[in-house]
Each structure stands twice: as C-alpha cells, then as structure tokens.
Amino acid sequence: MGKEEELLVALRRVIRAVDLRSKQLSKHFGLTGPQLLVMQNIQEKPGIMVREIADNINLSPATITNILDRLEARDLAKRIRSTTDKRKVGVFLTERGKAAVQDSPRPLQEHFVDRFHQLKEWEQSQMVATMQRIATMMDAEDIDASPFLELGSISEKNS
Amino acid sequence: MGKEEELLVALRRVIRAVDLRSKQLSKHFGLTGPQLLVMQNIQEKPGIMVREIADNINLSPATITNILDRLEARDLAKRIRSTTDKRKVGVFLTERGKAAVQDSPRPLQEHFVDRFHQLKEWEQSQMVATMQRIATMMDAEDIDASPFLELGSISEKNS
DNA sequence: TGTGTTTCCTTTGATGTCCAACTAATTCTT
DNA sequence: AAGAATTAGTTGGACATCAAAGGAAACACA
After folding, report:
1. A100: which residues sit within 8 A by CB, 6+ positions away?
2. Which CATH class is domain A3-157?
3. Which residue stretches of chain A have pLDDT < 70?
4. Alpha helices in chain B, H assignment, sequence order
5. pLDDT for B29-79, tens place per residue?
6. What is the spatial distance, in angstroms and rounded to an integer, between the CA atom of A148 and the C1' atom of D9?
7. Is the CB of A58 under 7 A from strand D?
8. Predicted local confidence at residue B154, as pLDDT
9. Interface membership of A119 toward B (CB under 8 Å)
10. Most confident segment among A88-97, B103-112, B144-153
C-alpha cells in the first residue's frame, strides 16, 4: 500500500487520540478539549469576538456558537453584545469560568507533552514543521493546479 | 508560545482540513470520508467483521455500527450474521455499493495527494514517519508512569 | 434617505464520534 | 451441566462539527 495511505492511517490515529483526550478531559475535568481551548482564548483576551476565537483555533463560527451555548448554560462564560456595534458579541469568563481555567489540565495528553519535551530541541522543531507543512499542503485549496503543470515532470498519469 | 502549542494549532488545522474534505466528498460524491473508508475496507475483504473495520481505520465499533446503519439504509452495504457464531456479523457490499466504490475519489484532498507525490521519496517517508511517531507518542496510554520513576530525574511533582 | 451589500452571529439539519450500558452468544470453570 | 467470564455488536445520550440559510446591524454611495 502507498505511503499516502500509511499517512492517512497515522493521521487517523492521531485524530482519534486527540478526540479520546477530549472525552477524557470531559469526564475527569468537566470540559472537553474544544471547550477548554475556547476558554483559554477568552482568558487571554476578555471581550474577544466569536470570529476571532474561530480563527485562533481553526473552527467555524457555527461551532464556536455551539460551544459558547454550553459554556453559557453552565455559567462558565457570558456573551455581551457591543453597544456601539450591535452585531458584535464580546465573550467573557464568569468567576466560575476563571476558576476553572486556572486549574485546567493541558489539551493534549500529559504523557504526550512529557515525551515531547524529552525530545531534543531540533526534533521538536522538526515535528512541528512537518505538521505545519502537512496543514499547509492540505488547506491551500485554490492555489496551484495549472501553474505547476509546465514546470514539473508529469510523473504518472493515473488510470 | 511553546512549540507544543504550535503543534496543537497545526494539528487542528490538519484535523479541520480532513473534516472539510469529508464534507466536500459528501456533497459532491454522496459519501463522507469515513463512509468511504469503511466501504473500501469491505471491498478488500467481503464478509469482514465490524471489529476488524474498526481496528483498520481506528474508530470504535460503535462508530462503525453507526456508519453501517446509514450505508445499509441506503442499500450500499449489508450485514449478514454468521450462522456458526451468531455473535459475529459479516459485512458485504451490495451491487450499488460496489459500483459506488469503483469510481470513488480519494479520501484525502486531491491536491494534497498530488503535492505529496511530488515530494522526494525520502521526504514522503520522513513525513509518514513523523506522523506515526506522533501517533505512537499519543496513544501509548498505559506504558510508562511508574516504571520510569526510579530511572530518570523526578523533574517536577505536580501540585 | 434609501436601497443594496457586507459583516457578525445564530439556527437548522446532518454526520461523526465516543463511552457506558445492554443483549446475545460462546467459552471457560468447576 | 450450571454459572461465570468473555466476546461481538448495538443502543442511548452527549458533544463536535460543518454548510447553508436566516436575521440584524452597519456601511456605502448615490
């Protein structure tokens, strides 16, 4: 099987691990991974806008709304509409929310973080760089296509 | 901010890209990423068991059940209980299902695959290896902990 | 001022995803 | 052979996630 498929399998393992970590957080700590990330964002910048959070953690605004609904229902965060521009919504932490973020665990598995820190500096960088590269290769949706065809070898035509 | 967080951000980008690809597939082709992967698995081994599929693509059996429900409802796959061991369920593709898998697109973005193939052999390998390493670092949940304490530096005790 | 566009957020509807609990069937013990 | 433990799969409930559609408000510009 091709390297491409191996990559996909490894990717699925990682995605699953992240998801399981989220479930684990939810169970032992009461907040899922995304909820935690959202709250950390709010903490860093009280009054942050929905859109901003979405961009920061790479989720759609719809998803953030969804998450905020739950946080608000549990009195961990609150939304306040701007008076100057009533389209905008500033998000804040409640006292309970602040307390929760204080003693929050890490979004990634503790033991992953431990191991990651045990790696040599250059290995860490290399790992980050590879992941970023994959991300970039995946989400640049529009660029490329025609411009590249004249340059490179048209290596194989499939089927 | 730490490398660890950079990694998390890149990871979220990748996860999102995979998810968006899935939505895109669903829209243009009628099957989501996971559905497609499940069907490819069935194609390769007709009569495959639910558990096997789950292991192959790194999802829980519950999720596979869920996906199979939909596939069966759309007459793309069917389940047949084993007669010798009635706990077991063999999964097969219907004629429609076979046809669908035939002209199915790739689970990953076409342009990602293209770019990936443009990389040099060693770069591809390196990319796969890194991803596998991350996966391994994340999902070895049980190992470590106590066995390591006597050897290494007890770096920090938390709270 | 009025109409059209853009921006920001929310709602709706569909998947995916898991765990925990459950049923059914098989195998192991004594 | 009866009861216990294990295995296979499903169900129920909760979140995450998105696109598309739907307001509401602000802006733009004639």
Report:
1. A30, A31, A39, A76
2. mainly alpha
3. 1, 140-159
4. 3-29, 33-44, 50-57, 61-73, 95-102, 110-118, 121-139, 146-149
5. 999 999 999 999 999 999 999 999 999 999 999 999 999 999 999 999 999
6. 49
7. yes
8. 25
9. no
10. A88-97
Averaged pLDDT for residues B89-118? 93
pLDDT in tens, A20-50: 999 999 999 999 999 999 999 999 999 999 9
Which residues of chain A have a CB within 8 Å of the CB of B132?
6, 10, 13
Taking an 8 Å cut-off on Cβ atoms, the answer to whether A138 and B13 are in contact is: yes
DSSP three-state, residue B91: strand
Mark yes or no for CB contact A138/B3 under 8 Å.
no
Provide the chain B residues 41-70 that lie in CB contact (below 8 A) with chain A.
57-59
Candidates A137, A142, A144, A153, partner chain B, best to mutate (most B CBs within 10 A): A137
Q: A51 and A61 in contact (C-beta within 8 Å)?
A: yes
Specify the residue for token string 């990634």.
A108
The pTM of the full predicted model, rounded to 2 decimals, is: 0.84
3-state secondary structure at position B125: helix
